[in-house]
Give the backbone structure.
Amino acid sequence: MQENAPESEGLLEQAGQGDVRARDQLLALHRDRLRRMVAVHLDRRMAARIDPSDVVQEALADACQQLPRYLRERPLPFYPWLRQLAWNRLVELYRKHVMAQRRSVNREERPALPDESVLELADRLVGNVSSPSKQIIREEMRQRVRQALVALPERDREVLVMRHLEQLPMAEIAAILGSSEGAVKVRHLRALERLHAILAAQEK
């Protein structure tokens, strides 16, 4: 799902002129995308206590408070900026609910991709099939892709998740990663190549 850039830009301009209704419409425009992102990344150890909608609501409250500064500086396109606020909320919650229960400070300090999201990513990369025989093959391939995704470096999984689960356009991924769109396309291609190499090695 791509950002409706013209609509966002129009609302941003109105919000910058003090139009509260335009500001609220602007934030609401991206609510579903943010919820999708949070649901994809929410650690299942927190899922029983934390609803993705609550995380999104807090991120939008942060956005509302920080919007005047954003409008002055425009450090990122609007949705990548919103996503960063939601991601910061996720990291805070992860540290509070998961990291606080661990003794080692050297453990990972950012949310890991939940198994459900890994499986969904495998589904998207495998594709749809219809016949029963193909479905059996698909299930085998799905499990192999799942194992390969786990074996991938984090930076490769990151770009695949943003592209295929969050369904972000390359331009927004580039803004989030602080890179050029061309570099992101290369990174995405190389991530797929490494995934295929792992899958090929599994067959040997």
User: Anything to note?
Assistant: The radius of gyration is 19 Å. DSSP finds ten helices and no strands in the chain.
